[in-house]
Amino acid sequence: MDFLRPASWEEALAAKAEHPTAVPIAGGTDVMVEINFDHRRPDVLLDLNRIGELQEWEVGEETVRLGASVPYTRIIERLRGELPGLALAGHTVGSPQIRNRGSVGGNLGAASPAGDSHPALLAAGAEVEAVSVRGTRMIPVEEFYTGVKRNCLEADELIRAVHIKKADGPQQFSKVGTRNAMVIAVCAFGLALHPETRTVKTGIGSAAPTPIRARAAEEFLNAALEEAGLWDNGRIIPPSVARQFAELVSGAANPIDDVRGSAAYRRHALGVMARRTLGWTWDEYRGNERSARCA
Amino acid sequence: MAQSTSSVITLNVNGEKRTLPVDHRTTLLDALRERLDLTGTKKGCDQGQCGACTVLIDGRRAVSCLQLAVAAEGREITTIEGLADGDQLHPVQQAFLDLDGFQCGYCTPGQICSALAVIEEHAAGWPSAATTDVRPEAGVPPLTADEIRERMSGNLCRCGAYVSIVQAVARAAGVETAQAAPALPQQGRTEEGTAA
User: Fold this and answer.
1) What is the pTM of this model?
2) pLDDT band with cut points at 50, 70 and 90 for residue B132
3) Which of the four pLDDT bands, split at 50, 70 and 90, describes residue B140?
4) Are B68 and A47 within 8 A, CB to CB?
5) Is B80 in a helix, a strand, or coil?
6) Which residues of chain A lie closer than 8 angstroms to B61, CB-CB?
7) Which pLDDT value is given to residue B188?
8) A175 in contact with B at a CB cutoff of 8 Å?
9) Can you give the CATH number for the domain in which B98 is found?
């Protein structure tokens, strides 16, 4: 196994162009498990840890440009105001040791449907900045995932950063697992209120071949909130609307039975998480003093 | 093109520079234990789940099983062997001894390295998942038992010495043990004297 340690981003892009099969490694929390257990034998590893700019972020007017290797710890500590949903999701990634190393770029590169950051990215709205020696393209995160552990990156492309919309309203993340730490999600749900556009966006994790948005549920809720004037009058969401929203979220999932849970359980849990996160975020939107809590 | 499968690297471990050839696949954990004779760091699961191999890399806790040795070059690595000052144990080590924060001891080096980081992270104002209000303006709550448990959640103890581990971390952090004492339910008894 060859080991490449480019000292700059340009060098990394050149190396990826020259070795298209090279596996990029940053925190190593995913790739290393596969190597230690001989599930994967990359002929070349491309270590991105010496590239400082991948660990940096810029807070712009409307988005945060989050370097691909910024560890979850940094996001939780420094960006929880701008990216509350992602910070809440970050709290549930692995363990403190893993959060010191793991990053959103790694989650996207691995493209596991169970990756914790995906529901938060989908709900907030995000674009992946994919770069190669040929140039840069921005990929809406919805289009980034193409299958179980597959993404739409070309062989010579690397993830430079993720551009995530800054929160314009309350966001929540909820995840079901057997314990709090060190679990792969049985299923997960992210929800973001966008009062500026009067829309609600969602993200479902671990309950379909790829992370997905529950679009029918979003459209139903957007129409229901509009019709009842709830964005303006700040009243509570009628329970029947919340229930219908939850059912549509359940219906959007396409889960499987596996060792972590049955498809039926996943659908049920998603509905519960959808209803709860909607309640929490709406309470916060209405100005209640309820704190931003994780499920 | 012939690929290189090994490199000669220099690791900075506990303030000492050690030069060694390694196969690229070697994890930092294996390099420490098998090559540098620093067997204090333990291998539990080799997949980042148990925390037994926790060391400090540039002052941050990380599991050394998910770190390639070759990628650790140039970083400052601190293992359990590097904590004591001669015969003077580190306060966290002393607290684990004084409060029996272990049984078989296998997970202890990882627990102690992790605990060191917990105390520093909390002092630096990092929130945890047990921090109920994570809004930036909310500040960070005191290091309660719940906070310690959450912050130590990346370290498993199969003997189940958690109660004493929490107390040891609290003592090392200078938190009143009463405040950090786990809120265990009173079994079969309540203040009214009736069965719960």
Assistant:
1) 0.91
2) low
3) confident
4) yes
5) helix
6) 96-97, 100
7) 42
8) no
9) 1.10.150.120
